[in-house]
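Q: Start with the shorter request: fold the first protein.
A: Done. Sequence, then structure:
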Amino acid sequence: MTPKSIVQSFSLNLGYLKGYNREKFTKDLIAGLTVAAVLIPQAKAYALLAGMPPINGLYASLLAPLVAVLFGSSKFLGTGPVAMVSILVTSTLLPFAKPRTPEWIGLASLLALMVGITILLMGIFRFAFILDLISHSVIVGFISAGALVISANQLGGVLGFSTTKSTQIFSLLADIAQKLYLTNPYTVMVSILAFVIIYVSSKIHPLAPGALIAVVITTLISYLLDLNRKYGVPIVGDVPAGLPPIGLPPIDLQVLSALWGGAIVVSAIGLLEALAIAKKFSVEKGDRWDPNKELIGQGLANLTAGLMQGFPISGSFSRSALYYRLETASPIAHAVVSLVILKTLLIFAPLFYYLPKATLSVIILTAVVPLVKPQEIWRLYRINPIDGVVAGLTFLSVFIMDLWQAILMGAILAFGSFVYKTMYPRIVVITRNPKTQTFENAEAEGLAECPQILYIRPQMPIYFGNAEYVSNYIVEKAQERKDKGLKFVFIDLEASNYMDAVGAENFIRMLKRLQAMGLSTAIGNVNRVVMPVLERAGLKEVVPEGMIFGSKGQSLSVLLEKIDHLFCAKKCPHVVFRECLEFKSGEKVVSPQED
C-alpha cells in the first residue's frame, strides 16, 4: 500500500452527480422520504434489540448512513441499524453490563468504534476477499439461528412482560414459560393490531410504510385510551429531543481486549450482509461495484455511529430494496433521510412517548420470522451432507451458547472440514482407455493397468497438511505392485497447481523412497509455479531431465521402450496401449531394456 492509494480509498462517491437534474432530484426526494418512513420505526425497534434506548437507534441513523454511501461505491446500500447485527451486539455485551444502562450505552458505542476500525483497516488494505472464507453453510445456519433468537427475544414484548436478556434459546424459552401468567391481554391486542396493520399495508402496496402506520395508529390509541396507566401496556416513555452528544465513550482497556472477539464476529456478519446487498443491486443496475470501497464506507459509518452514542450498524436489505425499487439516482436520497431523522430528533422525538413497546416488537418479528428457514439447512444437506451438518450445528448451537460464539464455532467447523478434506486428498490411479485413447481413472472405470508402469495423480495441491499422506499413499500403492512386475512410477502433477516447501521436500523424499525400492520414477504435467519449487528442493538430483515430461502421452514413448518387453509378451494379460500388440506379436524386441 502506498500513501497515494490510501488517500484514493477515501475518495467521495460523487460520480452519480454528473448530469444531475430535476427529474433525478425528484426520484431522490421520494426515495429518501419513503426510506425514512421505514427507517425511523425500525431504528427504534432495533435499538431495543441491541439493548439500547430507542432514541439511540435514531442517533445511529442520523449521519452514519450518509457517510456510508458517500465513501462507499453503491448508491442503493441503505446502511443503519439491522436486526442481525443488533442481536449480536446484545450477545457480545451481556457479560459486561445491563441493557439500557449508561454502562451498556458506552460499551455499545465502543463496540461500534472497534467494528469501524476493523472494517476500515480491511478496506484500506483491500482485504474484502477474506469474507469469502466464511462458508455459505455457516451463513445459512446463522441467519436461521439469529432470526430464531431475535424472535424469542420479542415474545415477552408482544405478551406484555419483560424477559431475561439472552441469546441462548433454552434460557429464553424457559424464562418465557415461567412468566406466561404475566401476559397482559391489552398488550396482546396492541400487538395483534400492529401486526394486522403491517400485514394489510404490505398487501395493499409493497412500498406502503406499514411499520410507520402501525407506530402512528398504536401511539394514538395508547395516548387516547391511556393504555399504560389504565391497562399496564408498556410504552417507550421519555424520549429526549435534540442532537446526540458527540465524543469518545469511556474506554476500559481490560474490557476493550475482551470485546475484540465479538467485534470481529459483528464486523464479519455485518460486512457479509452489506456487501451481498450492495453487490446484488449494483450488478443488477449495471453500476460500478467495489467491495473494498464498501469496506471504507461501512467502516467510517460505524465510527460515526460510535462517536454519536450509536451502536454497530450494517446494510439493510429491506431499505436497500426500497432505494432500488424507487430508482434512487444519487447519494442525495440518503441526505434526505438524514434531514428527516434530524427533524425527528429536534421536533418529533417527544411524540413517541406513548408508543407501545409491543409495536416495536411486532416490527422486529415481521422482519425476521421469514428468515427462519430450516428447509435451507435440509437442502444443503441433500446437496452436500458436510455443508448441511455445519449449517445444522451452527443453528442448533444457539440453544446452548451465545450467538456470536455459535457463528464462530460454525466458521471453525466449516474451515476445519475443508482443511480436513485437503489433508486427505483423492489420489487416483490412471490408465489409458483403449477405446477413447485418453487417460482415465482406472479404478472408477474398471480399466486394465500396465503392470510395469504405475500412473498416479494427486487431485489437489500438495502442502504441509497433506504432504505426508500423499507420499505414503503413493509409496504404498507402489509397494502393492512391486512384486507384480512394477518398474516405473509416473506421478502426474496436472491437478497440483501449488506446492509449498514442506510439500516439495516430502515429494523429493518420496521419490528417493521409491528409488530405494528399486523403482524408476518420472513426473509430468508440472506447471510453472510448482516446477521452480521442486527444482529448489533438489528435483533434478533425483529425477533426470529425460524423465520429466510435459504430458502423459509424451512419457509413453519413452517408458514403453524401457519396460521389459518379454514380460509384456509372456506374462501380461492386458492390452493397455497400442504398442502392447506389437510386443505380444513379437514385432518389437522382447528383451528387457536398460533404464
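Q: Next, the second protein, separately.
A: Sequence, then structure:
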Amino acid sequence: MTTSQDATFAPGSRIVVRDEEWLVRGVKTGTADGIMIKAVGVSEFVQDVEATFFTGLEGITPLVPEQTELVVDTSSRFRQSRLFLEAVLRRTPLPRTERGLALADRFLLDPLTYQQRPVELALSGLRPRILLADVVGLGKTLEIGLILAELIRRGRGDRILVVSPQQVLEQFQRELWTRFAIPLVRLDSTGIQRIQQEIPAGRNPFTYFKRAIISVDTLKDAAQFGHHLDATTWDVVVIDESHNLINKGTKRNELARRLAAKTDALLLASATPHNGDKESFAQLISLLDPAAIANEKQYEAKDIAHLYLRRTKISPEVRDQIGDRWADRGPSRAVYCTAGPIEEQIFDELTDVWLAGKWTDEAVTGQHRLFPYTLLKSFLSSHRALHETVTNRRKKATGAERAALDRLAELTSAMTDHDSSKLVKLVEELKKIGVGRGSDTRAVVFSERVPTIKWLAETVPGMLGLKPNAVRVLHGGVADQDEQRILQEFELAGSEVRLLFTGDVASEGVNLHQQCHHLIHYDIPWSLIRIEQRNGRIDRYGQKHQPQFRALILTSERDDAKDDRTVSEKLLDREAVAHRSLGSVEAATGLYDAKAEEDRLVRDLLAGKSIDESYEAAHAEIDVMADLFGDVGTAPVMTDVAVARVPKLFDSTEDFVDAALREIYEDRPEDHIDLRREDELLTFLAPDDLVHRLTDLPRSYLRAHREGEDLRLKVTFDRTLAQRKLDQARQSKTPMWPEIAFLSDVHPMVDWLVDKVLIRLGRQQAPVLTADVTKPTYLIQGVYANRLGQPTVVQWMAVSGLPAAPEIRPMDEVLREANVGPAMVNRAEALALDPFRQLLPQAVAAARRHLEAERAEWDAANAEPLEHYRRRLQTFEQASIFDELPASHRAKRRERARNTVAEQHDLLDRLETAGDPLLRVLAVLVPSPESAA
C-alpha cells in the first residue's frame, strides 16, 4: 500500500488518517514536517471536523483508485451523482496552466474588462504578484476582489491578509463581503483587544483567523507582532496604499519585506506608486520579484511589465467602458475672498517682516528658511491655524524672532470669526449649493490644518442653521474606530450628516461619492498630487452626479503679497488641466511624492521663481519615471479577457444550491433548516457547521441576522435584488449591513454545500448511473501537481471501449452527449455491478497510460514559463555587477545576487510537476435500456 511519504495528494481526494476518512481541502509541501494537508472529516465520528495533518507526523493513506467501490445511484433523476460530480469539479483547483478567468461575472458588480485586466496579469506570472497602480477612482478594491476570488477558486486563496490604512478598514471589509462574499476579520484596535481576550494566551492570532484585515500602523509594531508574522505563511497578502512602504529602513518597509517573504501571492495597490526615484521604486518592485531589476539605477519598462499595471480615466479601454457609470467631472472653480482690514494687516506683517527675512538678527539657514512659508500657509488656512503655529514657535523663540512672533500673536488674537472673509464665503457657497436645514445636499470641506477643521466645525453649523449631529469632523487625532464610523455615516443616505470637515487623512483610498458630489477646498495643499487625491474622493467610479469642486482663494490688495493667487489658484488650474488632458497629474509634477513636490515648490519660491517657472522647469527635466510608465496599460486592448474552460453539470450556481439543499435534507429542507423561498430570495436557519464557517464575518453582521440563538441567513442570486438591498443599507440612518447577501460562487454557504455533497458517498465510493451511452464509461479524474501541492495538470477523462479497445474522451463532451442532466429519469432498476467492477482496474490503467503518454507535452507547457524565468535569472546575475562600484561593493552585490538567484531557482524547482498522477474514479455511466436497444 502507498505510504504517506511517497503518495500524491490533491484537493478533492480522500485519505484515511487514524482509521477515519477525510476529504482533502488543500495541500502544501516543503514544511519541516513533510506535506501539510488540510482536510474535513467525512466518516461518522469526525464528520465536518476541520483538521490539519502532516505526512511526517501522521500515517496518511490515500485511497487507491483500483479499489473504488461502485454503488448504484437510486436518487431521483440521478441527483446524487450529478451533485457529486459537480462538487468534485468545484472543489478541484484549476491547474496553473489555466490562465482564463473562471468567475469574472459571478459577483455584485459591473463586469468591466478593464477591471478584469489586472486578474489576467496576476494569473499570467509564476506567482500572482503585481502592483495595481490605476489612478484614483478606477476601482482598485474591485480589482483586488476579483483577483482574490480567482485565487480562491484555484485553491490558492485560503489564507488572506489585507493590510491597509486605518481609515479604509471598514470600507475595504464591506466591499469584499457585499460584492464578492469574501469575509475578512477586521483587526482594528477593538478587534485586537477582543482577540487577546478570546484566544489562548500566546496563541498566534494569524493562525486563529485565516482571513483578516488590519491597519499597517497596527501591524508594523515588530515588538508585538513580528514573531507571529515570522511564524505565519499566507496564500495572499494585499497591501493597500503601498507607496507608504517605499522608504527603506522604516517600520512600514520592514513590515512589507517580512510579509513578502511569507506569501505566495502579493498584491500592492497605490494610485501614487512611486516618488519619482528609480532606485526607491526598484526596491518596491523587488518585493514582487527580487530578480526583476538588476541595476536599480538603470532599468526599462519591459523589465517590470509583468508586475505593473496603470490606467487613467482617459485610457482607451477605461474610457470606452465606464459610460454613464461615472459622471464627467465639473470645473474646479475659484471662489475669491477679499481680505478684510485685519487680514490685510497680517499680510503686511508676513510680507514686510517674515518673507523679507527681517524676523531675526541671526543668519537663517537650512529648514529655518522655510518657516516664513509655514506661517504663510497657516494664515492662508485660517487665523486659528496661524495662531497655533505662532504659539508653538514662541515657546522656543528669543530676541527679534520672539518680538516678531508676539506681533503676529497680537494680530491673530484680535481677529474674530466675522473678520474671516473665507469663513463668510464658505457659508455663502454652502448655502448656494443647498446645504442647510431641511436639505439632503451634502458637502465635504477639506483643510490641511487641524485648528482650522475644528474651528469650522464649531462655527459653520450654527451659521447654516444645522444641528450639531449634522456635522462630522475627521483628522489624524480621531480614534481609529471613530474614524471608520464617521466615514460610514457620511456615506449613508439615511444619516443626518450633511457636512464633513476633514483633513488629508481622508484623501487616500476613502469613498465619499455615494451621497456627495460637492467638495470645497477651504485651503489648497501646495501639491498637485494631494489636490488630485482629495478630488478623487468624490470623482470616482460609481459617481452618478457631476463632481463639483470649489476652492476658497484669499486675495490681498497688495501686489507683492503672496496670497492664494500666488500658488493655490494656479495649482487648482494646473490640476484641472492635467486631469482633463492626461488623466493624472503625475506627468505635470515631475515628482511623485506630495511632500517632495511641496518642498521643491517652496525652495523655488525662496529662490524668486514663480509657480509657473517652478513647474515648467520641473517638466523640462528628463522624467525617467514617465519614460518607464507613461504607456503601461494605456494602449487600446482589442482582445477580451480569456475565460477558463471549466466543465459543469448545472446551468447555474442557483441550480446547484437548490438541488444540494434538497439532496442533503431529503427533499425537505424546510423542515430541517426552516428554508423559505420567495421568488429570488432564500432564507434559512444556518446549521452549526455552517455557522462555524462564518466566524470570519463581523460580529455586527452576525448580530443583525440572529433570531434568538439561531442565525437566519438571507441570500439571493438576483443581482438586482442584492444591489437594491445594498442601496437600502446605504439609505439607513446608522451603519448597517445589507439585509440580503449576494450568493457568489465563493460564498461560505456554497463552499459548505460542496463539502456536504462530497461526503454523501461512503469511503471511496463512486456512483453508477444509467445514461445515453452504448458502452460502460468510466469518469476518471487525473491530476499532476508540483512540489507545492498545486495542480499543474487536471484532466477529466471518460474511458470507454473496455476491455479490447480503450478510448479516452473529454468528460464534459461525454456527459453532454449522454444527456446527463436534470431531465434524466432514474427507474431504479436492478443492476449487476460485477461486470463493471471487473473492468474498473482496466479503466484506471487506461487513464494512467493516457496521462503518462501526454505528460511530456504537459510538462513542456508548464516548464516553458519556468525556463523563461530561469533565463531571466541568468541575465539578472550577469547584470548585477557594476564596473563603477568599488570592489568591496561589487563583492557584496554579487553575494546578494547569488542568494536571490538561489532562492528563485528553489522556487522554480518547487513549481515543476513532480511525482505520479493522482487518479480518482468519479462515476460509471452504463447504457440505459433505450441506449442498449
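Q: Describe the second briefly.
A: The first strand starts at residue 14 and ends at 17. Residues 84 and 158 are 22 Å apart (CA to CA).
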